[in-house]
Amino acid sequence: MKLKVYRYSSQSRTTLGALHINGEFECYTLEDRHREEKVRGETRIPKGIYNIGLRTVGGTHERYSKKFPSYHKGMLHVLDVPNFKYILIHIGNDESDTMGCLLVGDYANNNKLQKGQLTSSTNAYTKMYMKVIEAIKNNEEVTIEYLDL
Q: Where are the domains of the chain?
C-alpha cells in the first residue's frame, strides 16, 4: 500500500497537505511548518519515502486502545526518519496537536488566511486507519511518501 502526502500550503506555523492512498484522495493533513534546522516538536519531517509500522507502546497507543477498543491495533508509526523519532499519524485539529506528527481530517481551512486547521479528524482517522491496518494485517508493505509541491 502506498500513501502519499502532497504538501500544498506551507505557511509560518503550519503545513497543509492532501493524503492519497494508492492514488485515491483520502483526506487532508496538517503538520508543523518547514524549517531549515529542526526544532523538536515544531518541525515537519523531510520529504521522502518511509515505511509505516505499528507502535504498540506509549501514551498515545494507550489512549487510542481505550478510545477505539474495537479496532485499534497500534499507532501508525512513520519509521526511520533521519533525526526524528516517534512520528505517528493520528487525530488532531491544529499545530498544538502535532509535535511533528501527521494529523488527518476530512476538512481543512485556508492556510493563507489563518494558521492551518483540520476538522472531522476522528472520522478521517478511522476511515484511513481501517484501510491501512487491513494492509498491515495482510503483511503488505506500507509506505508513505511526503512530497512538497
A: 2-148
